[in-house]
Fold this sequence. Notes:
Helix content: 10-25%
Distance between the termini: 89 Å
Strand content: 25-35%
Number of strands: 9
Shape: elongated
Strand order of the largest sheet: 4-5-6-9
Order of helices and strands: HEEEEEEEEE
Structural class: alpha+beta
CATH class of the domain at 58-141: Mainly Beta
CATH topology of the domain at 58-141: Thrombin, subunit H
Amino acid sequence: MKQQNTIFKLQALVMAMSAVLALTACGGGDTRIVEREPIVTDDDDHDDHNHGGEAGGRLFVLNSGELQAEVFDLDDNDLITSIALDAIPSSVYASGTYRYAALIERNANKVSFVDGGLWQEPHDDHFDLPVVHLGNDHFQVV
């Protein structure tokens, strides 16, 4: 019994010492915020090339009534091109970069790709936005 009492007292002493150390370790700190002048960078070190500006995007639409695919410019809501199709695809997917539309025709075992004409190319610390003028063609994988 005396041994349990001694162990209890030692545990209480250790806990009290830990609390005292924890409380005395906190405090006495002084926080000072020193504001410095911003670093001015010269952004004129790029070569003179066209960054392509900004684009709202392109919208790919299937027109089942006329068996054609249509690509619209979302900046000005204009129809850019219409592409005649052999059949209405069962599925349409965007490519990983969203540049191409993949038209899946399961019954014909065919996949067609339509170029949307917009993509981003990495250039140093930014991306350039090349724009391609679209024709009425597409390519197929049979």
